[in-house]
Automatic annotation (TrEMBL), chain A:
<dbReference type="InterPro" id="IPR055221">
    <property type="entry name" value="PSF3_N"/>
</dbReference>
<comment type="similarity">
    <text>Belongs to the GINS3/PSF3 family.</text>
</comment>
<keyword id="KW-0235">DNA replication</keyword>
<dbReference type="Pfam" id="PF22466">
    <property type="entry name" value="PSF3_N"/>
</dbReference>
<dbReference type="Pfam" id="PF05916">
    <property type="entry name" value="Sld5"/>
</dbReference>
<dbReference type="GO" id="GO:0000811">
    <property type="term" value="C:GINS complex"/>
</dbReference>
<dbReference type="InterPro" id="IPR021151">
    <property type="entry name" value="GINS_A"/>
</dbReference>
<feature type="domain" description="GINS subunit">
    <location>
        <begin position="72"/>
        <end position="165"/>
    </location>
</feature>
<dbReference type="InterPro" id="IPR036224">
    <property type="entry name" value="GINS_bundle-like_dom_sf"/>
</dbReference>
Automatic annotation (TrEMBL), chain B:
<dbReference type="Pfam" id="PF05916">
    <property type="entry name" value="Sld5"/>
</dbReference>
<dbReference type="GO" id="GO:1902983">
    <property type="term" value="P:DNA strand elongation involved in mitotic DNA replication"/>
</dbReference>
<dbReference type="InterPro" id="IPR036224">
    <property type="entry name" value="GINS_bundle-like_dom_sf"/>
</dbReference>
<feature type="domain" description="DNA replication complex GINS protein PSF1 C-terminal">
    <location>
        <begin position="149"/>
        <end position="200"/>
    </location>
</feature>
<dbReference type="InterPro" id="IPR056783">
    <property type="entry name" value="PSF1_C"/>
</dbReference>
<keyword id="KW-0235">DNA replication</keyword>
<keyword id="KW-0539">Nucleus</keyword>
<feature type="domain" description="GINS subunit">
    <location>
        <begin position="47"/>
        <end position="137"/>
    </location>
</feature>
<comment type="similarity">
    <text>Belongs to the GINS1/PSF1 family.</text>
</comment>
Length: 185, 330
């Protein structure tokens, strides 16, 4: 886990909100928007970012419920046609967040949901990236989660590298780290 | 509160293109540190409150304890965001040193703007470390790892380079949009910085022997020059004059050196390697002269003149005339 400390994607994944139920009260804390004072009652239902919910769960102060991105509506949509579901608008880190939630939540079917959704989407969408033109590819790119987008980009990069090797492009390139070329006036 | 500023800082970093630096967001950085201070104050006041009530801080799990816990966790979270921001930027700075250049002034000015003062310091120290390491190892480590096919490369200057640059074998000026034929090792640092670009034009328009005979599908000029040596002839004067015009002085030099190398190799092997590989059915062939050949040529068994449209049979002639004759037919 030490290697994930600096990982930007991991930090952003843990920022996703999860609903919790407080078992213990907390003072001088203004997390609960429905409370008027800065006090969280025992038994209050609050949406907390995952990093906070996880730590409080470890200290048995809260219990975590499934967020809205993993509810029944999404499950039905995934069962119907997983390849077309717009997962990014529900939760951009769908798979990573689901993996983190899975040991903490009482729902046993979360793991199966994640793996079936990923398998179907990979088979239907990501394997087509090698033959898709830019036009068809750009239609479903906004639906992919961040993890899927990373896979897509990696495949795209290796495809262009292969084509370049075939045709024998220039070996030396302007260092990619320098950004896009701008036309100098 | 509760990790918001840290989150915004990390989001700012992630919103840039992958692997590129945005300007160092010192405003958000300072705001995150302020938020940490606020959390710290609240923790201290809650713990003081518990101590005033005479309760043991560690064992007693009352509301104050959990409040302090939440603030403590927010503080840790902000710390993590700050560390990740600086760490990932440092990764990119190190990458810049390896890929682009070891001098900070070599970096394009818009990237230099995006670095904070501390990051520039880090870049300098890292460059010094790299240089001393390369000095001890004895090899230049930040160049292209793949052995090239050809030591020379054609480049076009696209950026602004000072005049009178010292290359490894000559001093040249580099006006904008000029094209040069340089050694790979000289050109590489300029290409990484984006000041020159490699030209890989196909020569199919300029060096076309005959559409049927020789189709050029290579891209590098030196490849084609070597091809000429193998396929046409080993003497530069044997090449058709319009092809000789297309070669630069360096390329003619290269052709001569390559021919010498081929001749010595063929001498050592003991066979002529640049002739037709297929064993013929008949040692003699019938030819017609279509181009201008000098008079009094020495063949392997007689001396003859070759006026145009004369028909003779000989084995050696076949090779020269197939290619050259094809060219002059055009």
């Amino acid at each position: 886990m030490a290697s994930k400390y600096y990982d930007i994607d991991d930090i952003l994944t843990e920022e996703e909100f999860a609903p919790v139920l407080f078992h213990k009260p907390a003072n001088r804390v203004t997390i609960d928007p429905s409370a008027e004072t800065n006090y969280v009652e025992q038994g209050a239902k609050v949406e907390l970012p995952f990093w906070l919910a996880h730590e409080l769960h470890l200290r048995q102060a809260v219990s975590i419920n499934l967020p809205a991105s993993f509810d029944q509506k999404t499950r039905l949509e995934i069962q119907a046609d997983a390849a077309c579901v717009d997962l990014r608008s529900r939760c951009p880190y769908f798979y990573e967040f689901g993996c983190k939630l899975q040991p903490l939540v009482t729902d046993r079917t979360l793991g199966i949901l994640l793996s079936t959704a990923f398998k179907i989407r990979y088979k239907e969408r990501l394997t087509k990236v090698f033959t898709a033109t830019h036009l068809t590819a750009s239609k479903f790119l906004p639906f992919l989660t961040i993890e899927e987008t990373n896979l897509y980009e990696a495949a795209h990069l290796s495809m262009t590298a292969f084509k370049k090797w075939r045709t024998g492009g220039p070996r030396f390139q302007r260092a990619s780290i320098l950004g896009r070329k701008r036309k100098e006036s | 509160m509760y990790g918001r500023k840290g989150y915004q800082l990390v989001k700012d970093f992630a919103s840039g293109e992958k692997g590129h630096l945005k300007p160092f967001n010192s405003k958000l950085f300072d705001e995150t540190i302020e938020e940490c201070d606020q959390n710290h104050h609240l923790i201290q006041s809650l713990i003081r409150k518990m101590q005033q009530e005479g309760l043991e801080v560690h064992n007693n799990r009352n509301a104050d304890h959990y409040g302090a816990l939440v603030h403590h966790l927010s503080l840790i979270r902000n710390k993590r965001c700050l560390m990740a921001y600086v760490h990932n930027r440092a990764d990119i700075v190190r990458d810049l040193a390896w890929r682009v250049g070891l001098e900070i002034l070599d970096l394009p000015p818009d990237i230099q703007e995006n670095l904070s003062a501390l990051e520039k310091e880090y870049f300098k120290n890292h460059s010094v470390a790299i240089k001393s390491y390369m000095g001890k190892v004895g090899i230049e480590l930040n160049v292209d790892m793949v052995p090239p096919k050809d030591p020379y490369i054609k480049i076009r200057v696209v950026g602004d380079i000072d005049q009178g640059i010292l290359m490894s074998d000559k001093t040249t000026d580099f006006p904008r949009h000029s094209m040069h034929f340089l050694k790979r090792t000289d050109a590489e640092p300029y290409i990484s910085r984006g000041q020159m670009e490699e030209l890989t034009e196909t020569l199919s328009q300029s060096v076309m022997m005959n559409d049927g005979c020789v189709t050029v599908c290579r891209h590098n000029r030196a490849d084609i020059v070597r091809d000429l040596a193998w396929r046409v002839g080993l003497e530069i004067l044997d090449l058709p004059p319009d092809i000789q015009e297309n070669l630069s002085a360096l390329e003619k030099e290269y052709f001569k050196n390559h021919s010498v190398a081929i001749k010595s190799y063929m001498g050592k092997v003991g066979i002529e390697l640049n002739v037709d590989m297929v064993p013929p059915k008949d040692p003699y062939i019938k030819i017609r002269v279509v181009g201008d050949i000098d008079q009094g040529i020495l063949m392997s068994d007689k001396t003859t003149d070759f006026p145009v449209t004369l028909c003779i049979s000989s084995n050696e002639l076949m090779l020269n005339l197939t290619f050259l004759g094809g060219k002059w037919r055009n």
